[in-house]
Amino acid sequence: MAAIHMKRLVKRYGDTEVIPSLDLEIRDQEFMVFVGPSGCGKSTLLRIVAGLEPVDGGELYIGDERVNDVPPSRRDIAMVFQDYALYPHMSVYDNMAFGLEMRRTPRAEIDRRVKRAAELLRIEQYLKRRPGALSGGQRQRVAMGRAMVRNPKVFLFDEPLSNLDAKLRTEVRTEIKALSQELKTTMIFVTHDQVEAMTMADRIVVLDKGVIQQVGTPDQVYGEP
Ligand code: ADP
Ligand code: ADP
Question: ABC transporter domain: from which residue to which, for each copy (predicted)?
Answer without folding.
Answer: 4-225
